[in-house]
Design goal:
Blueprint lengths: L14 E8 L5 H11 L5 E3 L8 E9 L5 H5 L3 E9 L1 E3 L8 E4 L9 H9 L3 E5 L8 E2 L2 E2 H6 L9 E14 L2 E8 L5 H12 L3 E11 L2 E2 L4 E2 H5 L8 E2 L9 E4 L1 H8 L9 E2 L10 E4 L5 E8 L3 E7 L2
Length: 308
């Protein structure tokens, strides 16, 4: 991840993103609580949950970066997944109650047959989320209803799979690498794969390799956070959303944005190059990220999120 790192106890620290390599066990909210304690009660959030049994990249937003969470949540995710054929669970993963177990010695599909079925998941399609998920059903979390034994019907949602590679087949264990849109349920993919292969399947293991531009190379362990050794690894605000177009503000533009006023060509250095519907980084003369601007009528940029 590009950009200079700053310590959280630096008086110039405005916030940023701390990428955690989440271990198996804690929930995403547990991780947020640990980071909040380490950063002395600073405002902390995440950019999308990771199931407790899963491991890997979990970007945590700190301080003013929490205002940018909605722009980071929708990023594509990359996973290393281990699927077990011959068994199905009510949660679609290894933590659930077994609802189907294939007889001993059941016929296993060939790697070629598995690869052929996987091709059908590439591209955009509609996925039904698992009953054991945080999706809302009649105003209540679906998993809360499922745990009470209630039937849960969730509407399919649009998802996209950019890449889906078969890494290995070792008996009933199928290892996959996939890149998917935000909101994609890998365990729902495992369940569906088992149905299409006629063997049943459940998600045995899951490791997130990347969330947007944040990868394992950027990550720190949760133990390092507990030991207060992660402050220098925070990705600063100025290094976020760097793939967006940027508008450099004049001194007057900086003042206008700080007060929530829209800016136009007179408050920017050079052309705005703003496109309708495309957010823009509003940066100061020194390159510091001051706001997120949204193009409006008349060629102006409205500060949707102010970071100063």
């Amino acid at each position: 991840m590009p950009g200079r790192r700053r310590r959280a106890d630096d008086e110039t620290f405005r916030g940023g993103v701390l990428v955690i390599d989440k271990p198996a066990g804690p929930t995403s909210h547990d991780v947020v609580a640990v980071v909040r304690r380490a950063f002395r009660g600073a405002k902390v959030g995440h950019t999308g949950t990771l199931d407790p049994f899963a491991t890997g990249v979990l970007p945590i937003v700190i301080g003013r970066a929490t205002r940018l969470a909605r722009f980071l949540t929708g990023a594509d995710k990359e996973y290393d997944a281990l699927v077990r054929l011959g068994r199905s669970t009510d949660t679609y993963d290894v933590t659930g109650r077994v609802v189907y177990e294939a007889p001993e010695g059941f016929p296993l599909p060939s790697p070629a047959a598995v690869a052929e079925v996987l091709l059908g998941y590439l591209g955009s399609w509609m996925q039904t989320p698992p009953a054991y998920s945080a999706k809302q059903a009649d105003g209540v979390r679906a998993y809360a209803q499922a745990r009470r034994g209630r039937a849960v019907e969730l509407a399919p949602v649009p998802v996209r799979v950019e890449a889906l590679d078969l890494l290995s087949v070792d008996g009933p264990l199928v290892r996959l690498r996939l890149v998917s849109s935000a909101g994609f349920y890998v365990r729902a993919l495992a369940q569906d794969l088992g149905e299409r292969l006629g063997t049943g399947a459940t998600l045995e293991g899951l490791r997130r390799l990347r969330s947007g531009s944040f990868g394992l190379a950027d990550a720190v362990t949760l133990d390092a956070v507990v030991r207060s050794e992660a402050g220098s690894r925070v990705v600063p605000l100025d290094a976020l959303l760097t793939d967006w177009p940027a508008a450099v503000l004049t001194a007057e533009g900086v003042d206008w944005v700080a007060h929530g006023r829209a800016v136009g060509p007179g408050q920017c250095v050079g052309p705005l190059a703003a496109r309708s519907g495309t957010p823009v980084r509003l940066v100061g003369p020194d390159g510091s990220l001051l706001a997120v601007g949204e193009p409006g009528p008349g060629g102006v940029l409205h500060p949707a999120v102010v970071l100063v």
